[in-house]
Amino acid sequence: RTNMGIPKFFRWLVRRYPMILADIKEENDVPPIDNLYLDLNGVVHNATHSNDPKKLERISKAKDFEVIWAEVVQYIDDIIHLVKPKEMIMFAVDGVAPRAKMNQQRSRRFKTAQERHELKKLADDALIEQDPELQVSDMFDVNSISPGTDFMVELNRKLDYYIQHKINTDPLYSKIKIILSGSDVPGEGEHKIMEYIREYKNSDYYHEGTRHCIYGQDADLIMLSLLSHEPNFTIIREEVKYKREQVEGIVRNEFIMTNNFQLLYLPVLRQYLDMEFKPVIEKLELEYNLERVIDDIIFFCFFVGNDFLPSLSVLDIAEASVDTLFEIYKTTL
């Protein structure tokens, strides 16, 4: 899932603006948060994938939902008790996606199913090397994390029960507003979250100082969060380490989840963008508006691709395409 959204964008962004990202080493490293939004497809994906062979083997052998659900619940609890939101938690599960995304999902899932047998063999070999008694007999099918599957129907039911149980037993939940948007509600999780934020901004009870935090690994969450134009927005995500290796002449990029959380500070990113573009625009004696600049940046970043649009063949983030777009933008204003 680390490849979803805008490929390579997160790594490029952190390299260009390094102070936007901070490791969470203890609870005090998390700033006060009012509203927490959980993209639950990312939670389920991370909870069912592991670098620990024994945990992977346990999940893969699961014949019922309970083993997987236990991992999902633990992951949700870890995030919520780390962030400790003061006003609201929103659980958003991917519903039926727009048609443009469906086309990408279909091709991606055909590929996933095709690779599944190969991955099973690789996992078996890796586990047997570490412990001859371990073997992945039937790997968990990630394609079941899709709207309309039995897995997602059961997930909706369990989430509803879980929230009711937590409201009655956990003081952290009982004092705040809880929203659940399940897979039976159309739209992707992150888009349903943004729809809620837009409605909140237009409501009578909107407070400009509201501190938002969204959980998710997808790089397009950065764009969506910027597009909200909310001044206090952070993204909590699991740290991913990138490993590049060459096997039999083939270069492979491996993404390793570390079980450590990081915070990406959008206010700091906004300051970076302000410092970079304000002098250029004011020098041209044009009216400067940071929000308009952010909209422009998001627009031309579409050209490097996202979940709905394929990238232009001539643009590749790894080849400094976004840097070039930034410079063109500055010189053509």
TrEMBL record:
A molecular function (GO) term: 5'-3' RNA exonuclease activity
Keywords: Exonuclease, Hydrolase, Nuclease
Domain of life of the organism encoding this protein: Eukaryota
Gene3D superfamilies referenced in this protein's UniProt entry, alphabetically: 3.40.50.12390
Gene Ontology CC: nucleus
Residues of the Xrn1 N-terminal domain: 4-239
Keyword Hydrolase tagged: yes
GO biological process, one term: nuclear-transcribed mRNA catabolic process
Hydrolase as UniProt keyword: yes
Domain Xrn1 helical: 288-332
UniProt record similarity statement: Belongs to the 5'-3' exonuclease family.
This protein's name: Uncharacterized protein
